[in-house]
Structure formats: structure tokens, C-alpha cells
Amino acid sequence: MSSLSSNSKPVIVALVPMKGHxxxxxxxxxxxxxxxxxxxxxxxxxxxxxxxxxxxVNTDSxxxxxxxxxxxxxxxxxxxxxxxxxxxxxxxxxxxxxxSQLPGEHFLQTHSTNPLLNTETIDKAIALYxxxxxxxxxxxxxxxxNARFYWGDGNPINHDPQELxxxxxLPPIFEENSSLYIFSRESFKQSGGKRIGLKPYMFEIxxxxxVDIDEEDDFQLAELLCQAKLNKL
Length: 233
Prior knowledge:
Blueprint: E1 12-18, E2 32-33, E3 36-37, H1 38-47, E4 52-59, H2 62-71, E5 76-79, H3 91-101, E6 106-110, H4 119-131, E7 138-145, E8 173-184, H5 185-190, E9 200-204, H6 216-232
């Protein structure tokens, strides 16, 4: 399917990997975050999507698997094999295992560490992915930065230090923020087993939604932002 139409609705399978061990933020996935476990937020957002047919959690943790079973109907669990467990296993390797266990042609991969990613953004990304399949084979989210960047040796990346122009007039640099990836089984194969295909579409999202929890400071910042959002509702 290469486009959206009023007569048919494309469907997609959402992949959400969850690790039990987290060195920098202990028990991260099950830690309370604005009133419920952190990992619940992204699942709730996916469940409300117009396009997500199935949600699949790949985990190496029995506690996480039990928590998901107890709180969400219909979410599938894939028990992560020992050979692809650990802190140094590529996410593409985990996705490859998921695809070997699942039917379907189109997939979305996101993380439980992106609790501020909302359903509206997810659905907009999915719609754009299907609409642009004629020219792009995959989609990933990015964050725009208009700032002066330097390499580690002090050399400028995107500006001339001798010409001090306004930061908003600098050519933007886009960060792969790891919030959302959309791809097909075929594009994954053609790219050599990578979630970003050979002709990806960069989908810009806000810095607010792109907050990713890797460190303790990230957790506290994300919770403050989430609470501020809830207070406005």
C-alpha cells in the first residue's frame, strides 16, 4: 500500500523493546512516572492510534512481562532469547528477531523511554510514511537544532566563527532522537537489517515530545514536563 485512502486504512505493528536492567536509571521501565509505571505511557499512546493493529513488547524481564499482562489486554510479549540479551546488543538485532516471530509488512518501533510522545504525533508520522512510500522506504523522527556546533577539536560544524550571524539564520542540524522509526519488512531486508532504510523520510517532532530518558536527570526533567502537561488538562 503506497497511499492512504478513504476506503482502506493501513495497519501497522508497533514494537516496543523493554530491558529489565538499567545501569543509569535502576528499574526504569517499572518506576512510577506521573502516577503510573514509565512503560505504560507509550503503550497507552499506541493503543489510541488509528493505525496500530498490534503492540508487541520484547523483553528480557519476567517482571515487565507480568506487569504488561496484568495491565493491558491484547499486548503481545516476546521473550528475548539469551543470545540477544545485554547492554551491547544492537536494536536492529532485536528487531530482526521480532520480525522473524511476527506476521505483517509494516512496523513501527519506539521506546518506553519516550513517555511524552503522543498519539497525534504517532498517527501523523504513520500517515506520512504511507503517503510517501513512492519516494521513501522508511521514516525516523528528528529534532531540529539551530545553534552553533563544533567538532571535538574545536572546528566549527555549521557556521563560520568569523561571521557572527543569528542562530535562527544558521543552517539547521537534525538529531536522530530515537523516538520513532517506521519501516517495512522489505525495507529492513533491503537495508541489510536496519530500521532506517535506504531512502528514509526525516520527520521533525518537538523537543518536548523527543525527551528520552537515559539518565536520572532525564527522568526528572521528563516528569516535570509531564506534570506540567497534565496540569493544563
